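Shipment paperwork, digital attachment
Item: protein structure file
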Amino acid sequence: MDEELRLCDEHIFRCSICCNDIEERTVIFQIESCHCQFCTECVRQYCISQISIPLALIKCPNTECHSSLSSNEIRILLTDSQFQLYKKRLFEHEVTNDPRLLFCPQVNCDHVLILPEEQINSTEQAITCTQCQTTFCLKCRCQWHPNQPCSDSLTSDEMNAESNIKRCVRCRFPLERTDGCAQMTCINCKHMFCWYCLKSLDNDFFLLHYERGPCRNRLGHSRASLFLHRLLVVGLFIVLTILVILASPLLMLMAPCLICYRYKQLKNYFNNSTMWRRTVQEENASTIEQQPIISLLPSWNLDTCNISTV
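Attachment content:
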């Protein structure tokens, strides 16, 4: 009876995504590179969710696996329009991560420019798109501003523009803002910046950028919520400081123990190495002492030895 149950269980497959038991092998999808198996519908929905963000490759849904799905497998799982979107996302990722390639910053232009070697690390240099003929600054990716620093290149008209699509300042990935605050985080490079003036907010933990300048009071949140945010940041810093202060005496008490433990490990290691070296030397010495004695012994050939009896 137990053997029959075991054989029946072997025909039941459990998907690690939906955790459902499946008996029909036709609805199971196996990845070629790693042979991981999932429900076909689960893998399809997983691929659809992955193509909504910039990506290099679609990884295996198994978190412990580092394989990727091939293009043929993705083509089978997705529709034609979804597969075209996947190829577009893949192309955008390749362009944004290649320092020699550059998307035209014009919103309605998706032309890719190939930068010469001498312009890859250049700053505040004019470059013109060969398709839309837009001239922009290579550093800030804004309209070319001769004799003017990049920080002052944005005009009030550009800041008040109601365009809901802009490009990340760092990687030039196109972003769409439909609602919410003006503090934007790029989904491609995780760069944090202001939506209106495109200034970096990576180190502005208290969002003081919206307390002065042309972006004042344009965050999109109430003063109360902004105060709670700053209070939360201060509280987080206080908690981390207290943890460091409390952990310092503990680390000081544990340091001698760790040093002694490490010293014993090294001492045992060197002792074992010395004993092993001494043993090898003794074995070599005994071999050398026995070698002349063995060489003096006659070599008997038992096959040709004749013993006669009287």
